[in-house]
Amino acid sequence: MAGHWIEWEKGLVRKPEVIRIARTMGVSVLHAAAACMLVWEWAEDVSDNGMIPGVMPSDVSLAAGVPGIGEAMVSAGWLLEIDEAIVLPNWERHNGEPSK
Question: For 11, left (φ over 0), alpha (ψ -120 to 50), or beta?
């Protein structure tokens, strides 16, 4: 696991995926970006490789404490459902020790 911080990418709130997540959830882009950060923070705690077995999008929402964020991130392509697991694409680029 990475430690006590995660990356906030410049321009996160302006990314098309965050705009799509905000629209899907009916929230501001700031709320959507912060909700994504909560998901990524949780994922850092429970995964070394970006795969979280036995979890579905609604479980991600529960873990982050933000209703609908897991489902919205799937619809934006920032979470994938593969073989009864959640996968965070491009994990190695944004998460874990190598990204730091």
Answer: left
Nearest CA to 95 among 52, 43, 21?
Answer: 43
Confidence label for 100 from pLDDT (cuts 50, 70 and 90): very low
User: CB within 8 A of 31, min separation 6: which ones?
Assistant: 22, 25
CA angle 52, 17, 47 (to 5 degrees): 15
Whole-model pTM over 0.70: yes
- Cα–Cα dist 43/6, whole Å: 11
Read off the DSSP letter of residue 9. Answer: -
